Amino acid sequence: MHIPDGYLSPQTGGFFYLVMAPLWIAASKIVKRNLKARQVPYLAFGASFVFVVMMFNIPIPGGSTGHAVGGTLVAILLGPWAAMIMITVALVVQALLFGDGGITAIGANCFNMAFILPFAGYYIYKFISMNSAKDSFRRALAAGIGAYFGLNTAALSTGIQFGIQPLLHHTSDGKALYCPYGLNIALPAMLLEHMLLFGWLEAIITFLVIRYLQKDDPGLIL
Amino acid sequence: MLSQDGWHKKFLEKSITNALNFFKEAVFSEEIARKKGFLQLRDPRLKMIIFLALILTICFVRNISHLIILYITGIILAAASGINILFFIKRVWFFIPLFTLFIAIPAVFTQNIQAAIIFVLRVATCVSFAVLMTISTRHGELFKSLKSLGVPNIFIQILDMTYRYIFFFVKVFEETHLGLKSRLIKNFEKKAAWRWISSRIGHLFKRSMKMSEEVYMAMVARGYTGEFKKHGG
C-alpha cells in the first residue's frame, strides 16, 4: 500500500521522515561496514530486484491477480538492514518517477514497507527457523510465516497512520482534514484484505522462492 | 499442471502489459523532459525546492477556492511546458487511486460534501505538482537535485544505478513472460503459476546478485575505489 500525498497530514509525513532518518543512517553504516566499496552496485541491484518483484502479477483465488512486495524475502536473503536501503531506493524511484506513492509520504511509506515489514518478517523467520538446516522445510515455512506477519504488521502500521488522522487533525467543529476515517474503519479495512488475501499471497510466494533457492543454491540463504 | 478453465493465463498478459507500460511511461516522460517548455528550462534544483514547498503548502490548504486556483495553476504550467493538457489531467486522475473515491463517497453522506471535495481536490493538486516536477525534469537531473536537499551522494549514486538497471530487469521480466506465453498451449493451474512465478523470482534474484558482482569487478577494473569522482562539473 503506497500512501499518496494528501492522505496523511504534513505533520505526520514529517514525523515519519524524522523517525526514518536515524534508521537510514544506521542502515547505511552497517551496510558500508559489511560491503565497503561493493555497496553501490550491490544495493542498486538489490533495489532493482525489489522493484521488479512488485511487477509480477500473481493469480489469486477469485480470478483476479495481486502482487507480492518481497520485503521479507529480501531481508531473509540479504539481511534486514540492506533490505531497508533497497526497499527505500525502490520506493523513492516509484514515488519520484512513476507517481506511485506520495512525496510527502515517502517517510511513512518507508517506515511501513522498508522498516516494519522486513524487520518483523526477518525476526519472525529467525525465531521460527532457529538452527534448522539451510535446506530444511522448516526454514522455508519460517520464511512464509515471517512474510505473512511482516506484511500484516506493515498493513497494521499503515492503518494506524490513516486512522489517527481524524483524531490529530480536524476543524473546530470536528470535521476531518485528511484521511476522514478513524481507527474503527481504517484498521479493519487495511487489515482484512491483507490478513485474508495479500498476506497469504506474500507467504506462499516467499515460501516457494525459498524452496526454489534451497534446491538450487542453498548457500544464498542467510 | 494444465487445467481447462480460462483465467489462469491472465497473470501472464497482465505482467507483460505491466512491463510494456513501464517502458512506454519512461520513454514518454523522457520525451517531455527533453522539450524546451517553461518548466524544462528552469534550474532543476530550484524547481525541485519550489515544487516540494508547493506540495507541502497544498497539504495545509483548507479552502476549496484556493485549491481550485492551485489546481488550475498546475494545468497552466503544464500547458506552458508543452505538455498535452488532456494527457496531463488524465495522468493525474489515473494516479489518484480509486481508493480516494471510496474514501470520499461515504464521506459525502456521513460527514459533509465540503470535506470530501477538499480531500479529493487536495490529493489531485498534490499529484498534479508531483507529476509536473517529475515529467519536466530528466531523471539524472532529478536525482542530482536531491543533493541540494541534503540527500547524501552515495544514495544518489545508488538511485541512479538502480534506475538504469531496472530497465534491464524489466526487459528480462518481459521476455521471461513472453517466452512462457509463446510456449503455452493450455492454461496454467494456479498452483503451477505460483511455482513458476516463485522460481522466476528466485532466478532473478540469483541473476541480480551475480550481475552486481560482475558490475562491481568491471568498476574496479576501471579504477573504482568506492568513491565517485566528478568529471567536468
Count of strand segments of chain B: 2
Strand content of chain A: under 5%
- Domains of chain B, number: 2
Quote the average pLDDT of chain B: 85
Fraction in beta strands of chain B:
under 5%
The radius of gyration computed from the alpha-carbon positions of chain B, rounded to a whole number of angstroms, is 22 Å
Number of strands of chain A: 2
Largest interface: A-B, 69 and 86 residues
Low-confidence segments of chain B, ≥5 residues, pLDDT <50? 1-5
Largest sheet of chain B: 2 strands, antiparallel
Reading side by side through the largest sheet of chain A, how are the strands ordered? 1-2
Overall mean pLDDT score of chain A?
Answer: 90
What is the approximate shape of chain A?
A: globular
The class by helix and strand makeup of chain A works out as mainly alpha
Question: What is this structure's SSE topology?
Answer:
The complex is a heterodimer of chains A (222) and B (233).
Chain A: H1 10-35, H2 39-53, E1 58-59, E2 65-66, H3 71-78, H4 80-98, H5 106-129, H6 137-163, H7 165-168, H8 183-216
Antiparallel strand pairs in A: 1-2
Chain B: E1 2-3, H1 10-34, H2 44-60, H3 64-80, H4 85-95, H5 98-110, H6 113-135, H7 139-145, H8 153-183, E2 187-188, H9 190-221
Antiparallel strand pairs in B: 1-2
Helix pairs in contact in B: 1-8, 2-6, 2-7, 3-6, 4-6, 5-6
